C-alpha cells in the first residue's frame, strides 16, 4: 500500500483520484492549496504526490524542488489543465515521474500511478543494497541527492557515463567516485585531458607507439587507453577532442581494440569509459564539430552536476569540509566561524563553483593566520565587494515603491531607466518580438516563434542588467530555479 497526496484546488479531481487510489488499495489524502500540501509533506510518509501547477497560493512547478526535498523524497506526478510544452520540459528536468493533462482518462492515471509506485519500490530495494563510499563528495541538497542516485546506478553497471556541468562543479571527483565504487576499483583510473591533446602526438598519447615509429620515438610506449585496461578511462573535456581523432576513437569505443602507431597488430583494452564536458555536445554536433555517433555512445548514463548557485544549501557543509581539510593539512587546531562568515558565502554567486569556493576558503584560512576564528573580513576583498554591491541594490529595490514613472535601477556597472513594463530602456515587447522573427519570406510556426521570442527576451535581460540576477528575477517575475532552467534550455551563459 502506498500513501498518496493530491495537491489540487479542483475538488472533483481530488475526489476522482482519491476514489481510484482507494480502490487500488492505497491510502489517499487531498490538499487544496500549496500551503496545506507542504504542511502535510513535512510530516513525511508520502510516497506519491499529484501536484497541480496552478494553485490559489502559487505555482506548483516553482515549488517542485521543495516538494522533492521533503522527507521520503516522494515521486511527483504533475497535473495541469493547460498543455504547456516548456512546463513539461521543466517538470521532467525537475525529476517528476510524469506530466498529465486534465482531464486525464482513468486508465492513464491508473497506469501512471502503478508505474510510479513500482519504480519507487524497486528504487527502495536497490538503495538497501547500495552503500556508496562518498569520501570528499559533499552535498545534501535535492539536486545532489538526484546525482547520487545516478551515481549508484553508474557504479553498479559497466556502461559509459557522461558527466556534464560548469567548470569547477567537481566532474573529475564524481568520475573517480564512480570508479572507486565499481567492480573496476582495483584497476587504474586514467585521466585524458582532451583539451591538451596536440594534433601531432594525440594518437601516440592515446594508443602508444612502437620504437622508431617516428622521429623521437626512442622506445616503445604504452598509450593511455592500454593503461586503463581493466580500469576506467576518463576523458576530461571530451568536447575538445580533435575531430580528426573522433572517427578513430569511435572504433575503439565499439571494439575496445586499437593499433599503436607503427605497430602491425592490434591491441585490446578492456576499459570502462567515463567522459566529462562543460559544453553542450548537442550544440557541437549541430555545428559539425562533434560526431553524433560518438555522442550516442558516450551518454548511456548521463549525470548533470548542478552549479553551486543552484544548491546554495550545500555551501555551508562544503565550507566546513574544506576548512577541516585545511586544518589537517596545516596542522592547526579546529577553527570557528564568525556570525557573518556563512551568510557572506551564501550571498555570492560563485561563477567558479566548488573549485572557486575551495580556493576562497584557503585564502581566508591563510589570511586568518593563527586566529582561531574565520570572519567575513578574512574573505577576499573582491568577493566581499560584490556581495555588498548586490545587497545594496537589493535593498534599494525593496525600498522603492511601485510607480508608473520610470525608476532608477542600479547595477554594479551602470544605472538604467526601467519602466513598470519590465523592459529595459529602449526595449519594448514589440522590439523583442520583431527581433525574434527571422528574416525571410516565411514566418516561423507559432511554437517556434515562442521559443525564439523567449530566448531574445532572456538575452535582452542578461545584456541590459549585466547578469544582475536579483534585478532580473524581480523584473521578469521568474523564480530562480525557473530562470536557470530557461538559461540551460536556450544555452545562454548565466
From TrEMBL:
Transmembrane portions of the chain: none
Domain Sigma-54 factor interaction: 137-366
UniProt region (Disordered), positions on chain: 397-424
An example molecular function term from Gene Ontology annotations: ATP binding
Keyword Transcription recorded: yes
Modified residues (4-aspartylphosphate): 52
BP-aspect Gene Ontology terms: phosphorelay signal transduction system; regulation of DNA-templated transcription
Residue ranges of domain Response regulatory in the record: 3-117
UniProt keyword annotation of Nucleotide-binding present: yes
InterPro entries with a match to the protein in the record: AAA+_ATPase, AAA_lid_NorR, CheY-like_superfamily, P-loop_NTPase, Sig_transdc_resp-reg_receiver, Sigma_54_int, Sigma_54_int_dom_ATP-bd_1, Sigma_54_int_dom_CS
Keywords: ATP-binding, Nucleotide-binding, Phosphoprotein, Transcription, Transcription regulation
Name recorded for this polypeptide: Two-component system, NtrC family, response regulator
Natural source organism: Paucidesulfovibrio gracilis DSM 16080
Amino acid at each position: 500500500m502506498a500513501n498518496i497526496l493530491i495537491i489540487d484546488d479542483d475538488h472533483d479531481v481530488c475526489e476522482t483520484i482519491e476514489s481510484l487510489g482507494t480502490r487500488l488499495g492505497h491510502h489517499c489524502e487531498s490538499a487544496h492549496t500549496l500551503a496545506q500540501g507542504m504542511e502535510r509533506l513535512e510530516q513525511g510518509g508520502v510516497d506519491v504526490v499529484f501536484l497541480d501547477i496552478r494553485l490559489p497560493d502559487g505555482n506548483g512547478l516553482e515549488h517542485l524542488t521543495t516538494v522533492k526535498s521533503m522527507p521520503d523524497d516522494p515521486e511527483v506526478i504533475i497535473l495541469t489543465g493547460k498543455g504547456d510544452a516548456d512546463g513539461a520540459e521543466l517538470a521532467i528536468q525537475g525529476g517528476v515521474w510524469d506530466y498529465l493533462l486534465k482531464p486525464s482518462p482513468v486508465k492513464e492515471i491508473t497506469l501512471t500511478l502503478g508505474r510510479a509506485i513500482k519504480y519507487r519500490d524497486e528504487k527502495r530495494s536497490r538503495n538497501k543494497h547500495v552503500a556508496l563510499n562518498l569520501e570528499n563528495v559533499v552535498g545534501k541538497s535535492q539536486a545532489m541527492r538526484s546525482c547520487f542516485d545516478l551515481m549508484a546506478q553508474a557504479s553498479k553497471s559497466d556502461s559509459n557515463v557522461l558527466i556534464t556541468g560548469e567548470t569547477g562543479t567537481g566532474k573529475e571527483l564524481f568520475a573517480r567516485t564512480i570508479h572507486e565504487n565499481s567492480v573496476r576499483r582495483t584497476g587504474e583510473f586514467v585521466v585524458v585531458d582532451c583539451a591538451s591533446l596536440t594534433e601531432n602526438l594525440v594518437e601516440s598519447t592515446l594508443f602508444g607507439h612502437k620504437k622508431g615509429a617516428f622521429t623521437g620515438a626512442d622506445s616503445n610506449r604504452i598509450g593511455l587507453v592500454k593503461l586503463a585496461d581493466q580500469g576506467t578511462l576518463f576523458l576530461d573535456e571530451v568536447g575538445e577532442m580533435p575531430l580528426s581523432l573522433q572517427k578513430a576513437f569511435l572504433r575503439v569505443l565499439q571494439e575496445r581494440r586499437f593499433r599503436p602507431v607503427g605497430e602491425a597488430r592490434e591491441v585490446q583494452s578492456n576499459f570502462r569509459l567515463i567522459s566529462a564536458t562543460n559544453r553542450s555536445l548537442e550544440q557541437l554536433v549541430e555545428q559539425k564539430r562533434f560526431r553524433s555517433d560518438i555522442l550516442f555512445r558516450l551518454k548511456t548514463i548521463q549525470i548533470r552536476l548542478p552549479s553551486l548557485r543552484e544548491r546554495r544549501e550545500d555551501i555551508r557543509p562544503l565550507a566546513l569540509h574544506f576548512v577541516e581539510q585545511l586544518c589537517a593539512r596545516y596542522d592547526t587546531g579546529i577553527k570557528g566561524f564568525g556570525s557573518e562568515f556563512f551568510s557572506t558565502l551564501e550571498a555570492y554567486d560563485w561563477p567558479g563553483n566548488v573549485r572557486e569556493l575551495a580556493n576562497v576558503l584557503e585564502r581566508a584560512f591563510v589570511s586568518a593566520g593563527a586566529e582561531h576564528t574565520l570572519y567575513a573580513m578574512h574573505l577576499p576583498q573582491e568577493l566581499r565587494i560584490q556581495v555588498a554591491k548586490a545587497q545594496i541594490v537589493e535593498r534599494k529595490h525593496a525600498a522603492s515603491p511601485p510607480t508608473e514613472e520610470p525608476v532608477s535601477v542600479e547595477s554594479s556597472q551602470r544605472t538604467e531607466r526601467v519602466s513598470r513594463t519590465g523592459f529595459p530602456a529602449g526595449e519594448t515587447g514589440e522590439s523583442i518580438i520583431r527581433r525574434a522573427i527571422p528574416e525571410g519570406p516565411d514566418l516561423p510556426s507559432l511554437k517556434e516563434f515562442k521559443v525564439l521570442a523567449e530566448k531574445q527576451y532572456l538575452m535582452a535581460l542578461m545584456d541590459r542588467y549585466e547578469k544582475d540576477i536579483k534585478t532580473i528575477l524581480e523584473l521578469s517575475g521568474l523564480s530562480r530555479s525557473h530562470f536557470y532552467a530557461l538559461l540551460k534550455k536556450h544555452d545562454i551563459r548565466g
